Amino acid sequence: MTCIAIIGAGGKMGCRLTDNLVKSPSKHELLLVEVNEAARSKIEQRGLATIDQADALARAEVVILALPDRVLGRAAESIVPQLNPSTIVMVLDPAAAWADKLPLRDDISYFVTHPCHPNVFDHFETQAERDDFFGGVHARQAIVCALMQGPEEHYAIGEDLAKEFYGPVTRSHRVTVEQMAILEPTMAETCGIALIKALREVLEETVRRGVPRAAAEDFMFGHIKVELGIAFGLAPFPFSDGALVISEFGQKQIFQPNWLQVFEPDNVKQQTQLIVGDR
Q1: Are residues 195 and 95 in the same domain?
Q2: What is the pLDDT of residues 234-243, one digit of tens each?
Q3: The domain containing residue 259 runs over which residues?
């Protein structure tokens, strides 16, 4: 039986993790820590109770920091010195780890993991699965994991737990913390969200210019699917000659020539520092 302390257990991620881990009471002893009074009520609504943080840290074999990026570093500074040697500290996003916000301590392990979220090309059978955009409740998803430091056997422990609290999980990919930072924030958020928000602006501009919203939405959402399929090599046909010509025109109109510099190591580091609050 593994003794697991969840710090921030009443938050959005803390509740998600708790809801899945509590399904295996014979495997885990959960020590739920939450300092926010409003968030504690969410734990109580689940029929569970919180524990004093100092008591939890003294007993925990695994500590999951289910905290926002901007406070995680400060919390870790006070938490990590209290841990027993060989404790596994799990963080759920690479930002704090890659921004050097985790305290140095050689006798503990740091394990970083993050969900990939349900695949847009997956075909889910139920409405509940289709409505689970985040994953970890009904819809299956892949995950990424990294052992930042610690013995190899701690990777297996961390990965097994991640599969459980992010479940149902289709695949687990082992990467480095640097590679995970390239995935997020750079690929998925710095670029992905910016491009998707631009698509929303395009839709709103189309409506502003007189196209009925329902028509614009149907046209946009349908074309997104077919264009994603072609661009990522999943559709059995290519872009038309006309589509290729006009997309190249669009790229020159919209993108800066050097926009992929956001993937350079120093730039990725800067992005993680912005996320954790460093300016």
Answers
A1: no
A2: 999 999 999 9
A3: 183-275
Smallest CA-to-CA distance from 261 within 160, 192, 190, 195 is with 190
Instruction: Give the helix, strand, coil percentages of the chain, each rounded to 5.
Output: 50, 15, 35
In angstroms, how far is CA 194 from the centroid of its own chain? 17
Q: Determine the pLDDT at residue 100.
A: 96
Return d(Cα 143, Cα 139) in angstroms, integer: 13
- In percent, how much of the chain has pLDDT > 90? 95
Rounded mean pLDDT of 168-188?
98
Concatenated DSSP letters for 24-72?
-TTTEEEEEE---HHHHHHHHHTT--B--HHHHHHH-SEEEE---HHHH
Question: Across the chain, how many H-helices and E-strands are there?
Answer: 12, 7
The verdict on pTM exceeding 0.90 is yes
Asked if residue 188 and residue 119 are part of one domain, the reply reads no
Whether the per-residue pLDDT at 92 is higher than 80: the answer is yes
DSSP class of residue 184 equals I
- Last residue in a domain, options 153, 175, 197: 175
- Same domain assignment for residues 130 and 234: no
Q: Give the domain CATH number at 58.
A: 3.40.50.720
Identify the band that residue 279 occupies on the pLDDT scale cut at 50, 70 and 90.
low
pLDDT digits (tens, 9 = 90+) for 232-273: 999 999 999 999 999 999 999 999 999 999 999 999 999 999
Residues 168 and 187 reside in one and the same domain? no
Domain edge (last residue) among 123, 146, 175: 175
The helix or strand, by DSSP H or E, that contains position 4, with its residue range, turns out to be strand 2-7
User: How many structural domains compose the chain?
Assistant: 2
